[in-house]
Structures are given as structure tokens and as C-alpha cells.
């Protein structure tokens, strides 16, 4: 005999599943609409990580209140950046101006040299150059938008650093009580991984920037300080950053003779070997072991969603994403209890 309540139970289950599916679709659409705000929030988390990395040791050693430690750490970071800019700005501004002036001339000279050994139809046509110029204009506009968002990122970072526990507890409470311990542990692990990655990346940026500046000076390239600063800043962008940083130096070196060009190639390749075989293993030892392919896919995917700002933040997003996936999906799937250690 059939249970008369069975059809109603099936109908209620169907309705519940439909409502859940609609809610998930609506949530996905909402997240898509506010994706830029989410990216700014993540950038703020990186800024907060840097501030807290200095504020927490300061608080432990002095016993000062958290807010005072955060304010002092933020002031110290601003003072350090301002002092460094004040020290290098006179030389850097001159060298950057020279670099901007010399690069177009170097490109023209390089094009003339290539034209002597290549057929005319192998050189870029005027239409191709116009398309490249239009693309550069588009990228410049996107870069300006990313720079304008920097103020919001810094403000978000300061707010997160002032009361990180409050925001972490609020995030944890969005999940069912049975999952809150695991989510809390996942967020803690992601924060620790992000902190280790950021500190390691700062070391890598300083090392590569200093190495390029000293190497370019030793080779005799124009504007070594500007080239070093460009290389250090672009080191933050995975995969394509180091390649893009080498382009100005290689263009200049190509107009200065074959030996200079070869020394410049050796300089950049040697520093990348130092980064790949020494710096990156030290960084990965403290965070999730993110394969290079994941960094590359993250760069492409996040860059397609968010533009240049997404490209810049793709590496830390990959690190945090892998840690959260491991803590919230892989370990539960395999019956591992991450809330009591790294099992």
C-alpha cells in the first residue's frame, strides 16, 4: 500500500531543491556584480597583512593596545616608504625621464637594424602599429582605473587591520554552526599562508630589484636605478611580470652592441634562476605548494575577470584559494580533521 504522504514529501523536496538552486544562482549573479568590490577587499586584506605583520610583534614586545600598535605600524610603513622615495627620487626621476626619452629612440634604431636584415613584408605594418598603439591606450586606461582603486584598497586594509577578529568572526557566522570550527581554521590557515607569501614576495622584490639595478650599472645600461625599480615592482606579478620587466633593458641593450645585449640577457636569466631555485622554494615552504601552472591559470582567469588589477593580485589569490580548497573541501572529503592540526 502506497504511503499517501510520499508524493507530498517528494514535492516539498523538489521545491526545496529548486529554491536552493535559484538562491545559488542569485548569489552567483550578485557576486559577479560586486566582483570589483571583492577584489578591493582582497587587496585590503593584503595591506592589512603587511600592517599586522609589524603590529603584532610590536604589541607582544611592548604590551601596547592593538589600536596603538596598528597606528604605529602604519606610520612606520608610511615613513619607510616616504624615506626611501625621498632618498632615491632625485636620481630616479632623472633616470626615469632619460629612460622614457631613450626607449622610443632605441626602438626606432632597433627597427632600422632589423629592417637591414629582414624583408620589408616581415616588419610590422602601419596598421599593425596602430592596433598596438590602441591596445596600449586601452591598457593605460585600465591601469589608471587600477591606480585610482589603490586609495580604497589602503583604506580597506587599515579598517581590516584595526579589528581583524571582528571581520573574521562575522565571516565564520555566515556558515552553519557545525562547519564554523573548520571555516575558522581555514581562514586562520589562509591568513597565515597569505602573510608568509607577502613577506616572501617582498624579499623577492627587493632582491630582484637590487640585483637588476647593480647588474645594469655594472653592464653600463642607462638608468640602472629605474630599471631596478621596474623589475622589483613587476616581480609581484607572476610569470609575465619578470618578462615584462626585462623588455626595456633588452631594447636599450640591443642598440649598444652584441656583448652588452648578451650580458643583459645573462643578467635577467641569472636573476630568474636565483628566484626560481632559491627564493621561491623558501616562499613555498611556508605556504601552500602552488604549482607554476596554477599561478599561470590564475593569472589568465583572474585577469580576464578583473583586468590589470586582477593580474596583479592573481598570485596571492591562488595561494589563498588553494589553502581554502584544501581546508574546506579536500580534507573533509578525505576524512581529515584540520581543526586539530595539519594531519
UniProtKB/TrEMBL annotation:
Topological relation to the membrane, as annotated: Multi-pass membrane protein
Location, primary (coarse class): membrane
GO cellular component annotations of the record: membrane
Gene Ontology BP, a term: transmembrane transport
Compartment list: Membrane
Annotated transmembrane regions: 14-32, 38-55, 67-89, 139-162, 250-271, 291-324
Domain of life: Bacteria
Keyword entries, A-Z: Membrane, Transmembrane, Transmembrane helix
PANTHER family according to UniProt: TRANSMEMBRANE PROTEIN, TRANSPORT PROTEIN YDBI-RELATED
Family to which this protein belongs: Belongs to the autoinducer-2 exporter (AI-2E) (TC 2.A.86) family.
Name of the protein: AI-2E family transporter
Lineage, broadest ranks: Bacteria, Pseudomonadati, Pseudomonadota, Alphaproteobacteria, Rhodobacterales
Amino acid at each position: 500500500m502506497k504511503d499517501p504522504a510520499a508524493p507530498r514529501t517528494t514535492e516539498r523536496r523538489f521545491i526545496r531543491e529548486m529554491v536552493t538552486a535559484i538562491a545559488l544562482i542569485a548569489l552567483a549573479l550578485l557576486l559577479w556584480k560586486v566582483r570589483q568590490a571583492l577584489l578591493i577587499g582582497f587587496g585590503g586584506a593584503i595591506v592589512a597583512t603587511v600592517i599586522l605583520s609589524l603590529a603584532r610583534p610590536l604589541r607582544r614586545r611592548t604590551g601596547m593596545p592593538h589600536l596603538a600598535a596598528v597606528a604605529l605600524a602604519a606610520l612606520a610603513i608610511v615613513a619607510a616608504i616616504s624615506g626611501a622615495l625621498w632618498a632615491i627620487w632625485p636620481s630616479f626621476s632623472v633616470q626615469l625621464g632619460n629612460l622614457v626619452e631613450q626607449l622610443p629612440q632605441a626602438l626606432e634604431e632597433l627597427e632600422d637594424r632589423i629592417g637591414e636584415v629582414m624583408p620589408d613584408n616581415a616588419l610590422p605594418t602601419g596598421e599593425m602599429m596602430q592596433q598596438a598603439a590602441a591596445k596600449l591606450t586601452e591598457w593605460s586606461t585600465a591601469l589608471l582605473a587600477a591606480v585610482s582603486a589603490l586609495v580604497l584598497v589602503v583604506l580597506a586594509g587599515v579598517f581590516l587591520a584595526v579589528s581583524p577578529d571582528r571581520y573574521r568572526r562575522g565571516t565564520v557566522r555566515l556558515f552553519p554552526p557545525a562547519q564554523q570550527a573548520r571555516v575558522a581554521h581555514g581562514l586562520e590557515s589562509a591568513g597565515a599562508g597569505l602573510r608568509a607569501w607577502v613577506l616572501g614576495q617582498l624579499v623577492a622584490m627587493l632582491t630582484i630589484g637590487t640585483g637588476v639595478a647593480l647588474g645594469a650599472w655594472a653592464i653600463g645600461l642607462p638608468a640602472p636605478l629605474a630599471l631596478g625599480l621596474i623589475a622589483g615592482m613587476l616581480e609581484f606579478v607572476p610569470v609575465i611580470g619578470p618578462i615584462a620587466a626585462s623588455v626595456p633593458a633588452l631594447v636599450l641593450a640591443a642598440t649598444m652592441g652584441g656583448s652588452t645585449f648578451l650580458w643583459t640577457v645573462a643578467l635577467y636569466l641569472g636573476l630568474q634562476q636565483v628566484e626560481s631555485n632559491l627564493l621561491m622554494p623558501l616562499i613555498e615552504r611556508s605556504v601552500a605548494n602552488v604549482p607554476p601552472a596554477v599561478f599561470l591559470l590564475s593569472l589568465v582567469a583572474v585577469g580576464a575577470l578583473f583586468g590589470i588589477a586582477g593580474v596583479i593580485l592573481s598570485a596571492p589569490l591562488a595561494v589563498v584559494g588553494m589553502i581554502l580548497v584544501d581546508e574546506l573541501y579536500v580534507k573533509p572529503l578525505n576524512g581529515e580533521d584540520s581543526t586539530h592540526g595539519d594531519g
